[in-house]
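Field reference: sequence -> structure
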Amino acid sequence: MSRKNHVHLSDLVGLNRLSTDVTMGITDLTEALQNRIACSPGILGTPVQKLTSVFAPVVFNGVRAVTRLASDTTDVALTQLAPELDKGSSSEREAVLAAVNGIMGDYLASTGNPLAITMRLRCNGQPLTLERQALAAAFSQPRDKLVVFVHGLCMNDLEWTRSGRDFGVAMARDLGYTPVYLHYNSGLHTSTNGRAFATLLEALLREWPTPLKEFAIIAHSMGGLVSRSAYHYGISEGQTWPQQLHKLIFLGTPHHGALLERGGHWLNVCLGLTAYTAPFARLAKLRSAGITDLRYGNLLDEDWQGIDRFEPTHDQRHAVPLPKGVSCYAIAADMGSQSNKLLGDGMVTVNSALGYHEDPRLKLSFAPTRQWIAYGINHWDLLNQSAVYKQIRRWIACRGVAKM
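Structure field:
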């Protein structure tokens, strides 16, 4: 039995680089704050202001130089050792990496940090090689029914197993499906992940060892946006897998955005209102592109390109309807009861999860029989509640023709 490590040396390489970046960021923040104070009306032109203007740049540049030297030295040593010692991975480590990627995964990817997650299709936490013989070896009995599970923000594929339940294992047992799980960096733009997911699905279905009769996607939270984006790009790029997709089930997907990101956006706006708090607005800008895409539910490159994602904006999304010819279903959660409804599941409102929107152009038309609200549970309970699984099983087992 292989040993599973909580921390890899490659993690230390990534953490070393990240801590260096944080130190540099704090130095920049402190310098900016010092400049704001030194240039305030009560200090401007005084000996204090003149003294700090001479010595402050020397001090701050010195801190940056020493930090970079220490980081580079440590980085070289750890990088040489990492390939030999990094083996196995614990679920705890995977959860931490997923959370870090959700928060700042775009930054990790753009700086080449080894903490950045590379998108893969996996089974039991192990990456799949998308080649026919390798897939046949990975699954003792690859079936003619396939389901792909797509996790949400700050999560990973292992978290489909919660409280001893795994919907994929249950579908294999009850309905004869082979489950495959997407693992991805949820801090990247939704459209970036959508394109990559579409490419993986094209390879997976092309190389699947057995002719498929059924193919479904079940997506939680942000995973639903990534799946809709993938379908759009799969169609636009002439891929064949969209024609093989039979059913798409969304669990608590913020089709029209999440209130939490809108709160983070307005925090950024408020911090920038005064000269003294403006430097701290940089802290609000640490959140990833994936998170800011959740403000309104962006799916396409055009929804964010050429736009400062930290500036006040209105909903500028391009309309993306539900996939034609695919049976689409939506499950929303509400922490209240049917007679005492709350705003939603703690992360996503019921209206957003069910695709309702006052603009007919953006409204998603789920058939009434393909919507369901789970009361008394929160956003994460959608992953393991038996009532949720029973509803999924009912829909998956239904042989009805897709209707839009």
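Note: The domain at 120-257+317-397 is CATH 3.40.50.1820 (Rossmann fold).
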